[in-house]
Amino acid sequence: MTSHQNTQTMKPATAAKKLGVYLPATPAEFQEGVVSRAELNELQTNPPQWLQDLRRNGPHPRPVVAARLGVSIAGLARGGVTEALTTEQIEALREAGPEWLEKERATQAEVRKETARLKEKKAQQED
Question: What is the pTM assigned to this prediction?
């Protein structure tokens, strides 16, 4: 009895998430097909021009927008940002420095600080 390995495939939405790109902005052939693990690895190691452009200019999905602005995804929603943004729009938001963005950045900084404190405390307890 021989075992043959099934090729793992994923939906385009999953592949786009793993690649950090906004699915509606990807080419039609990417959106309509399935992506194998090997194809995903190839896209990550040798990104085609469309993928390079999307990563550089956007539109970017909310997790990428949140990371570039230094806030949480929930913070984006509280600030009224619910759509994908381009790199240019993200830069404009940074430059404008709206009150909600400054507040959310401060909140995110506190969360990171508390997480680090708890991690350190746990490490000390384990020693």
Answer: 0.75
